[in-house]
Amino acid sequence: MAKMNDEMKALLTSAMWVLATADSSGVPNAVPIHFNSILDDSRLMLVDNFMNKTIANIQANPQVSVSVWNSSSGYQFKGTASIEISGANYELGVEMVKEKPFDPKGVVVVEIDSIYLTTPGAQAGSKVE
Predict the structure, then answer these.
(1) C-alpha span between 67 and 32 (Å, rounded)
(2) Would you say 110 and 79 are in contact if contact means Cβ atoms under 8 Å apart?
């Protein structure tokens, strides 16, 4: 299990997240995720409001990637996703979207297995954790 450092967490709190999945045949799917949270040093949470294809992909193949970046740095977090439709994490997701005109269907929790640098330069693509 990989752990995020403070620089990674700071980027996660300020940047848009993109969640990438693949179905059982390997066909990729990537979607931007607006409602998200860092649960702890090795877990991310993404709120499922409209993730029909994404959820089907996770059920078939739980290996996912979350990418975040800004104008000067970026990271890719690879891990195993699970879907939660009740419990504390789900309630956190409900709280996050309470001012919006929709109710979350669930949350996706990603246990981070590895972290890669996506910052432009010679080290891009290198594993950092």
Answers:
(1) 9
(2) yes
Q: Which CATH entry fits the domain spanning 6-117: 1.20.5.170, 2.30.110.10, 3.40.440.10, 3.40.50.2300? A: 2.30.110.10
Q: Which two tokens stand for residue 77?
A: 């977090």
Q: How far is CA 124 from CA 58, 102, 117, in A?
A: 27, 38, 5
Q: In this structure, which amino acid lies at residue 122?
A: A
- CA nearest to 76, candidates 110, 106, 107: 110
Query: How does pLDDT run across 66-95, given as a tens digit for each residue?
Result: 999 999 999 999 999 999 999 999 999 999
The average confidence (pLDDT) of the chain is: 96
